[in-house]
Each structure stands twice: as C-alpha cells, then as structure tokens.
Amino acid sequence: MSGRLIGQAEVIALATDGSSYSDGAVQEAIFLAQSCGAKIVALHVMPIDQESMMEAYALPDAMHEKISSHLNKIIKMAKDADVACEAIFEESYQPDKAIVELARQHKADILIMGRHGRAGLLKLLVGSMTAKVIGHGFPRVLVVPKDYANSGERILVAVDGSEASNMAAEEAVGMGVHCSNLKEVSVVSVVSSEEGLANARELTAAVCKKGFEAAPHVAFHPLALLGKHAPEVIAATARERNVDMILVGGHGKGLSKLLMGHVTEKVIGKAHCAVLVLEKRKEGE
User: Fold this and answer.
1) Are 274 and 235 in contact (CB under 8 A)?
2) CA dihedral sign of residues 215, 220, 222, 228
3) 6-144: what CATH class?
4) What percent of the chain has pLDDT over 70?
5) Are the C-beta atoms of residues 271 and 242 closer than 8 Å to each other?
6) Which residues, at least 6 apart from 66, have a Cβ–Cβ distance to it below 8 Å?
7) For 78-211, where are the E strands, in sequence order?
8) pTM for this prediction
9) Does the fold of domain 154-278 match that of domain 6-144?
10) DSSP letters along 104-122, please?
11) Domain ranges of the chain
C-alpha cells in the first residue's frame, strides 16, 4: 500500500458479508470512489468451519447464488455511479486475515467495513470480524455504521501526541487539502486532569495551525477537553458537532492489544458516525 492519503485513494477495498450491516460501508465505498476517481475491490470471505473440514468445500448452490447476487449488486451500484469495481469471493479458515491479505495484494489505500450490532464493538468484542481485521494493523480501516450517509463536510480528529494520533492529524489536514466538500475539522484532545489542559491546548492548536496553512478554506477548531473517559467525550463531541467521521490512531500491535478496553475500540463502539482507524505503515507500504 502506498502512502497516499484518503483523499488521494486509488484503490478501495470493501469487505462485505452480504448482510444489511454492510449497506453503509457499500455506500461509503462508492461515495469515496466517486470523490477520488478510485477503483473498488469488493471482498467477500466466507469462514470455513474447522470442525467440519470434510464439508468445507461443499458450499450449497443456494449459498453461492446468494453471494454472487450480492456481489453483482455491488458491481451494478458501482457501475451506475461510474465507478470501476471488481469482486472477489474466497473461503478461509481465518477470514479476518484473508481480508487484510487481499487488501494488501490489491494495494488498497483504505479498507472499508461495516459495523455489526446496535452497540457496535462494545457488545461484540471477541469474535467480531471488524475488531479482528483492525487488530491485524492494516494502515487505514474505515468502520461504517449500518445506516450512514456521509456529506463529507465535517470531521473530528482525536489527538494525544502519539505517533498514531499524529498520523490521524496528518490525514485530517490532507483531507482538508484534497476533499472539496470538507468545511470543518474539530481537533480534540481529552485529558483526565486540569494539569494536562495546557498541553492539550498546545497540541490541538498546533494541528489547527498546520491545517489552516495547508487548507485555509477549511475551519479548524482546537478543542482541549477535560474528561475521565476519553471515548465517551470523543463520541459525544462528535455527535454534538454533527461530524461525518472520526479519525483516531489505532495504537495496536495485534488483536489482543486492541481488545483490552482500548480507547480506539471504545470510540468505534460509541460513535454515531464512521470511524477511520490509522496505524503506522510498515516498510514497503
């Protein structure tokens, strides 16, 4: 994968399971592809039950037809929007790993997935396909709620001074430059005590200064906030400011780290909107 920002994406990987929970992800993939002139690679990876290996390759014809119909529908939706799209179907013992590998093979700039459950990952921690995929550390994963419409006008980026959050800030500034619809960027830093507010103000102000210099037509708002539970503050601020997307650093080095009550994972579960999770790029990506 290249170092292109989301607004410069050329290849978008769309992971879909055929359920209605993928609807928002499909719409967002087409919206983003239209904006960037990108190609969509739609991925449907069917999990193989390891306890019934003898039946693993005997998928019923009706199931194959259902999957083919779903993928063909996505291809048609993309075609109607003048977006190039190809579909890939695979079976795998580790579907989460297969999704990430396919995204890497096709040099995808971003991987888009739906979010299952009304409460998102909070009720589906262990075993959630979305959580597992994020845990593999793909550089840019966009998690999209079922009923989601993106106007592309307002985003929020959460920063804490870490390398991953610096990447999120860089991404937000890049979106200001390359996304013509973007009007406002809220730069949020949440601290648990008043002693940290000065540093939070300095951090958010620095990001906003860089953003205004790169994209003077976009309004950048620095927000240093006090709160014991950062995910709740971030999600509530995103809702209050009616943002379309939250950008956060993943900080994860694998599934186990991600699922230990991490801020990023909790933000995904609580957010009303899409959440873009950014990880450090590996060499060669």
Assistant:
1) no
2) negative
3) alpha beta
4) 82
5) no
6) 18
7) 85-92, 110-114, 140-144, 154-158, 184-191
8) 0.86
9) yes
10) HHTT-SEEEEE--STTGGG
11) 6-144, 154-278
